[in-house]
Amino acid sequence: MAFSAELFSFLADLREHNDRDWFAANKHRYEQHVLEPALDFIEAFGPRLEAISPHFRADPRRVGGSLFRIYRDTRFSKDKSPYKTAAGIFFRHERAKEAQAPGFYLNLAPGECFAGHGIWHPDTAAATQIRRAIAAEPERWSAATSSDAFTLMGESLKRPPQGFDRDHPLIDDIKRKNFAGSTPLTEADAVAPGFLDEYARACGAAAPLMRFLCEALGVRF
């Protein structure tokens, strides 16, 4: 199970012609080369996700499932471009609607392909829970994030958060605003026949991190 080079060709063209008239004339390309292959990928990944953890969901619905909508919410943005120029797939935790929880992510865009995993911009309460878990179990956090398969990403606070020791050996991780990792991928990876397995391996390598985050947030892994 893999994508085709036409996915990246369409998204590259969309970057150049990000307007409603062009999209309407090329919507068949979006559905044929982005939407349908992505939904097939989500469905095919379901059993592999279940093997990593039974508490995350691969939802192949056209609307409201694991595939992000192509339409941008421009209400509060200076950029009024109506369409996203990346295909984003998010495998949510079963309790994502009622609790802060990490997830697995796949981003496919020309020159920007990666597997993501963790939690991005958690609210203050969730971030504090994770920071407390890091402070209390530094060796376990270090083991969970020591994989060569991914790197932690995102911004950090300029100062230690209130209530945490600035001299803690993992203060740089405690200061993180996001607790997420990224595994780089390429367009060639995405169009190769074994891409489903490669993405599954990337998610599996992140399982210790995801388990740590789930337990810190009080949800099952």
Could you write a compact summary of the structure shown?
This protein has 221 residues and is of the alpha+beta class. The chain is 43% helix and 13% strand.
Report on this model:
The protein has helices spanning 5-16, 20-52, 124-136, 138-144, 171-174, 187-191, 195-205, 207-217, and strands spanning 87-91, 103-108, 113-119, 151-153, 179-185. It has one domain: BirA Bifunctional Protein, domain 2, CATH 3.30.930. The chain is built from 8 helices and 5 strands; from the N terminus they run ααβββααβαβααα. The chain has a 5-stranded antiparallel beta sheet. It is globular, with a radius of gyration of 18 Å. It has 221 residues and is α+β, with helices and mostly antiparallel strands.
